[in-house]
Input
Amino acid sequence: MGLPSFKLEEYFSEHEFTAPHLFCVSDAEPFSMNEILQLADTECRALWDRLGLGYTESRGMPLLREEIAAQYHSIDSTHVLCHCGAQEAIYCVMRSLLKKGDHVIVITPCYQSLKELPEVITGNVTLIGLDAEKGWELDIEQLQNSIVPETKMIVMNYPHNPTGALLSKTSFDAVIDIARARGVYLVCDEVYRLLEVDENSRLPAVADAYEKGISINVLTKAYGLGGLRVGWIASQETKVISKVSSYKNYTSICNAGPSEVLALIALRSSDALLSRNRAIVLENLELLDPFFEKYQTLFSWCRPKSGPIGFVKYQGDVERLTREVLSDAGILLLPSSVYGYPANYFRIGFGRKNFSEVLTLFTSWVDQHLI
Output
């Protein structure tokens, strides 16, 4: 099955490692390997020191799956399947559970594979767009009306990329009710979960809330450990884990041993890692409030409720803006076109320690060129 070019990843491939100043990255401040190793308990240190570089278990290291399962309330480690990042998890879920003619509902804008894979596999996708004018809130009535007899799956991403939006608990429960009434899979990309601005607004994991829910997560975004390439799916349904596991044998087969040990250390120290990253996000959000107040005639956004990213509306040509600010000041923005989103938006990322420096540079450029 032919797949279209992955616009976002190709954009980053071209610019991420050459642009001097990243103003749109989607992950939290990365940790170094040494920082993670310093957090190792006695058991993990011994695992690291004795580690051989042979194959690992296809479903993931048992200790690692136990630690992942501990994040949920309704599953044990047998209902966790590790992957090489969230992207592989998305791919294997879609390819193993969907077939041509199935109907899939996808909430947009979204990470491209969440939309393109169902479209390529089934040829029968309904897109439900979030509306900035309504605070990026999901239209529950539209979701309900989109269900047809062939509907096999609903795909959503909360906390949301690229807007940082969260479903209200009422809307979340309504989505679960809609999925349960028709017995459809509910796949939720939850890679920004645990970085909520207000921790009281945190939603349950879909894998906990619904018996046919599939939670996808990774250590990249909230934890700042993208280089480990450790992601996973969690589901109460044994059949899901079995089918996806079988398909994974045609992709990575298994994760890298060093990554799994480092991932285990990180999850056992999750409170410390998440606390640091959430503090960075909250501090940087406070810097953005006066920025949007000062430049309200140029830029606006719905203040994100979770994660280190936001979707900014620009009262001008976003494609030109992103080109010129990169050329003039070496600052990388991410235009909404990479999401297939037509309006003049761009994504910014505020999860890094040096965000204030880049914001100062961007502010200076705006004063010189747009005011």
